[in-house]
Amino acid sequence: xxxxxxxxxxxxxxxxxxxxxxxxxxxxxxxxxxxxxxxxxxxxxxxxxxxxxxxxxxxxxxxxxxxxxxxxxxxxxxxxxxxxxxxxxxxxxxxxxxxxxxxxxxxxxxxxxxxxxxxxxxxxxxxxxxxxxxxxxxxxxxxxxxxxxxxxxxxxxxxxxxxxxxxxxxxxxxxxxxxxxxxxxxxxxxxxxxxxxxxxxxxxxxxxxxxxxxxxxxxxxxxxxxxxxxxxxxxxxxxxxxxxxxxxxxxxxxxxxxxxxxxxxxxxxxxxxxxxxxxxxxxxxxxxxxxxxxxxxxxxxxxxxxxxxxxxxxxxxxxxxxxxxxxxxxxxxxxxxxxxxxxxxxxxxxxxxxxxxxxxxxxxxxxxxxxxxxxxxxxxxxxxxxxxxxxxxxxxxxxxxxxxxxxxxxxxxxxxxxxxxxxxxxxxxxxxxxxxxxxxxxxxxxxxxxxxxxxxxxxxxxxxxxxxxxxxxxxxxxxxxxxxxxxxxxxxxxxxxxxxxxxxxxxxxxxxxxxxxxxxxxxxxxxxxxxxxxxxxxxxxxxxxxxxxxxxxxxxxxxxxxxxxxxxxxxxxxxxxxxxxxxxxxxxxxxxxxxxxxxxxxxxxxxxxxxxxxxxxxxxxxxxx
Length: 625
Hints:
Number of domains: 2
Distance between the termini: 88 Å
CATH architecture of the largest domain: Roll
Strand order of the largest sheet: 1-6-7-9-8
CATH topology of the largest domain: Dipeptide-binding Protein, domain 3
Oligomer: single chain
């Protein structure tokens, strides 16, 4: 008993000394939210997000689909592919954001946050009710353990991002992070730290794949699975955070199932047969041609387009500058000329898409026209390192008449290749050693192959060769991207200012598997540093982002593709959703604000039975009817 009393006295003295020391040295803010920029939309006593139904029933099931497979239950492992939705459904973080705002965090495991006025440290107070699935309490020790585990055995990106950040347990419900270099963006980033139970993970090799589901704390648990084929998540009726404002009206399905398919055609037929419930369609041709039939005509399946305001970033064909054939900017510029977006959009996408002309589409951060004001002042610092045209001409993506006749582009591309040391010989574009210009486009979706063939044919018209490698095994594709074993891939860059921009563009991140371009440009580095340094200062951030965008464009690091400012969603008519939609989505991870509607489901079941009987009868020979 004496030892326990002495221990408690020691803790109290430590806390008193700590609080007294902080009061002397810092102006401290204690808050229910932590925002990177601006003020929060939701006040301290908010009840729920505006775009949820707080009274939504907790009932029914929903089944999603996924192309590919999975072979691992550790979504933090350095190899293998984890099942879809595992992070969103199984793991709680310190704080959580919403779909009405960008980078504003509210209480989840942490009930409040405190930080110094220079953002050199941040403290999270743990909700005393927070529990893991085995009923054990979440403590500050678990938070500190999780941070150290991610730092020591997690991805390289985590270690680089939080380099110099130390963690200290103040007491069982209070944890402090100290930043070597004061940084608001880094402090805010800590809000999204996933908290793991120390007693479960401390004896596990964290960097390795898991063969069974781990113990976690989120709204769902894994109920059943067949590795690589399907996984079923069961809503946890004892979920400790179910009634918190950030979760009220969300996670309404008793079960969430994800079915895996290897073929998109098979997947589409499975959807029409009712083997899964909701499909988000990204292919324009599919949307126009395949979402038709009696199920759609009778309202059994609803197909609709939902507008959104999400910054779209830049989906693009991406050059890997580690490969020698792409080091010359004139070659990258020439290949840009050979992608005929207008013809592709008309013939493959029914003219629905808009061409990307920025890395930050659908946002105020994209560049346009000529650089002016603060952006121009930033760029003038690097004038001798930038192309002269950047200051004298607006950047434009090539535009054709959509007929497929691109003779002017072919001529310009050949001139650029000639300047880069290539010439036409026997109808082949070769270098001084007689080697044909050849590269490989690595993809994993058959739908990407379809439109890429037209690009491939244009490249062949100047005597060069683009091979298309379709890797149906998603795990193999992911591994090749992680190891940079590719010439060109199709990916989407981050669309608004956040730390990911550093991982995608800074030369310090050359070994990051998010630095797809293998960018190693000192001007880009300094502009990225300016972006990161001003993530919390919108006035300074905008010109840095526009300057970065302009430099990336003029370096022709990619061939911009297209964007669409709406979701295309089809679903079996047995669900309801809130009338109000969030600004940046249509209801969460696919549909975490939707709910199972018993009345609709009963009508659907009756209609389905009638339809199945009708289909069966129609297949019986006329003499037998």
